[in-house]
Design goal:
7 helices, mainly alpha, Rhopdopsin 7-helix transmembrane proteins, homodimer
Chain lengths: 239, 239
């Protein structure tokens, strides 16, 4: 008897399987790397690098879980949302630490940004697991409101911080801003794959999983490297 | 009932199984060792040693996965390619860090070398999983173009760096160059085993797995030790 699979198309099923394992490996590799780099930045930025490490460590755990489920023919989207519920607020926090935002301003920003991330993810989930296109669209629109607010605010903080700086620091901030913008836009597009393509379309389902995986790697591991670069540049270490 | 095996020849099947377990153990051992050695080199080379640790850590994860699959009679070549996709760019990066290449030159080199590694591995995969000799040859030839470019560039950087140095530093660079050249040439040869030998040849399939395993150990763990030796020699610590 054949093994149970999530996608009937064997090649696409295997492709997603490999991508999930790849995601696990990248996250765990980044986890170790960020831990080794903590002491290479000035004291006030170390918490930012530690938070980056925690983010990819948690993501590595969830990718391992998703991969394991996929290997026995099960897909639990709950793992993605549980992961995002923990890691997205942390991604906001790590950025504000290395941008050198004052403690008071950071507190004020987090008071609205953290609830907005919870709202965004909480509103996204019912649409993700729904089968009706109408429900998916409704929750997509609702989740896009906090999404737009978070992205707009973080991008604004990046631009403001970049304009206060010059040289290596300014360019590392500019790179982080680009990564943030491009990556975050992948999520709402991947979310809509099941609406855009006909129901049960194997390529669309595989595409959605691949899009989320690539976006997670970029938004967490590559973004963590950008955070580390900002922290290193600010510590007077431009290597 | 007999267990499902990848190779029908029991002894060869067991030999590969043991080699994969050996590979896992060496990679994880090297991972711990490189982490312990980070602080034994000067600050500017620590990232190079950290990257070496990440490379063998990720390889250890993939060898564990390949070994586990083999133990239940399955071989997923995707693990090797997922591994190489992450680790080969990192092998280039760790070398450039310890060779003392200037930051600007390193950035310029990485802009062509990293895409070349992705191209090489992406072109290798379709031929690896294909069954027709023609397809295997086609992708082998295509992948050899970026392969030759990467190897030629890295070997050139090693020679240039070696000629700038004397004594312990020059000899440690010379050793790294030899390891690089000999090891990398194993991969394209192992790739062609299924073309050279008749289809289903048990020894050829076992030989390919053993060749890749030995080459991975040399190209990652032994090469990591060479990287560490260069970093130590440059740090004025020749023990």
């Amino acid at each position: 008897m054949d093994m149970k699979t999530v996608l009937q198309d064997k090649d696409l099923n295997q492709l997603v399987y490999n991508a999930l394992s790849f995601g696990t490996a990248v996250m765990l590799g980044a986890f170790v790397y960020f831990l080794t780099q903590m002491n290479s930045v000035a004291k006030q930025y170390r918490t930012g690098v530690a938070v980056s490490a925690v983010v990819v460590g948690i993501a590595g755990y969830h990718y391992y879980r998703i991969w394991q489920g996929w290997s026995i023919g099960e897909m639990n989207e709950g793992y993605r949302y549980a992961d995002w519920l923990i890691t997205v607020p942390l991604l906001v926090i790590e950025l504000l630490i290395v941008l050198g935002v004052t403690a008071d301003r950071r507190k004020a920003l987090l008071k609205t940004l953290v609830p907005a991330t919870v709202l965004m993810i909480g509103l996204g989930y019912p649409g993700e697991v729904a089968t009706s296109d109408g429900t998916k669209w409704t929750f997509w629109i609702l989740a896009m409101i906090p999404f737009a607010y978070i992205l707009f605010t973080m991008f604004g903080e990046l631009k403001a911080a970049g304009s206060r700086e010059t040289g290596e620091i300014a360019s590392s901030i500019g790179n982080a801003a680009k990564i943030l913008l491009v990556t975050w836009l992948v999520y709402p597009i991947g979310y809509l794959f099941p609406v855009i393509f006909p129901a049960g379309h194997q390529g669309a389902e595989a595409g959605r999983q691949l899009a989320y995986t690539v976006a997670d790697i970029t938004a967490k591991a590559l973004y963590g490297i950008m955070i580390l670069n900002i922290a290193k540049a600010r510590s007077g270490d431009t290597r």
